[in-house]
What we know:
The structure is a single chain. Helix 1 (25-41) packs parallel to helix 4 and helix 7 (244-278) packs antiparallel against helix 10 (360-370). The chain has helices spanning 25-41, 46-52, 59-65, 83-96, 98-118, 121-132, 244-278, 290-318, 324-349, 360-370, 377-389; strands at 74-75, 78-79, 138-141, 157-161, 164-175, 182-189, 192-199, 205-206, 221-232, 280-281, 284-285. It is built from eleven helices and eleven strands. The model has no long low-confidence stretch (mean pLDDT 95). The termini are far apart. It folds into three domains: 13-132, Orthogonal Bundle (Butyryl-Coa Dehydrogenase, subunit A, domain 1); 138-242, Butyryl-CoA Dehydrogenase, subunit A, domain 2; 245-389, Butyryl-CoA Dehydrogenase, subunit A, domain 3, CATH 1.20.140. It is of the alpha+beta class. It is globular.
Amino acid sequence: MSTTTAAPAELRPTDFLGIDHLLDDEERMIRDTVRKFVAEQVTPHVGDWFEEGTIPRDLPARIGKLGLLGMHLSGYGCAGTSATAYGLACLELEAGDSGVRSLVSVQGSLAMYAIWRWGSEEQKQQWLPRMAAGEAIGCFGLTEPDSGSDPGSMRTRARRDGDDWVLNGQKMWITNGSIADVAVVWAATDEGVRGFAVPTDTPGFSAPEIHKKLSLRASITSELVLDDVRLPDSARLPEATSLRGPLSCLNEARFGIVFGAAGAARACFEAALDYAKTRIQFDQPIASFQLVQAKLANMAVEVNRATLLALHLGRMKDEGRLRPEHVSMGKLANVNAALEVARTARQVLGANGITLEYPVIRHMNNLESVVTYEGTADIHQLVIGGALTGIQAFR
């Protein structure tokens, strides 16, 4: 029987389980760099961005200077970090705002990853260095007005016309759409689903912006309209020959959401904890009341559990052991937990919880989109259920 003389870990309200101890020096450095960027350049302004329904046009370039765009990819100006380091960056970005994390993950894990994984060498050289620097913006066109959870039912078509392809169709709910320089568009063809890197100045391409959103307002969301968009065959992603192409990209982006949701939850918990210790009622801080302490304890449990789950999946991905079903469990668990934390924090803040002076209602509204996009909670439940039973319920 062995004994140890090490002192017990210090109890820190914002890292109750000492998760920081599980990170290496490089991971802490990346996390702290992104946290500092968010504290200085996002948090002071994001309430105004949310209220105005916009995001600064130079924000991608500022993020690019940090090396965060496509940071988990190798070559072509990308940083080549570990998956866990990328996840920690997503966590800190979404602690600022889901829209900012969405900008980064759509750029890096959807548009850039699609070109990096499925594109030609010429396409990689043409787009990836500028995208990594934030000098060119990408978007990812898969979802359609009548095709969400079932991408195989897409109506966007690409047909051969001599040596060219002609694309017609419509995509919906596309982050970065109206500010993009290149759109990765997925279309049905007589040869199966194919992807295309579409320069957005191509005749017939347009991206009208979607307005009147009450969620992800600090993010650009658009339609993509393709009206006889003519492209050379060199625009086709040559290695993508089925739905496996776009689904692999979505799995990359969902991995970032697993971490990001933990960041949103942490931000709401920290706001509630600070508020509860300074809000005086009945001549004492509301943090002294049992009901409030119960809420804080439950929030702390969910934040720590979500962060540990994200970190575990990050380690699995870096070891090559991560499956899409694992990512589904992470997204389902962490986004649902973050929603519960946000709603509880809103109650702790009372009426102040509905103002943009505090981050809680903004995160709460954003998470209502996060729980739906890149695979709804229902679909991820069915993915997990299928893995458990061997029976695919939605096919």
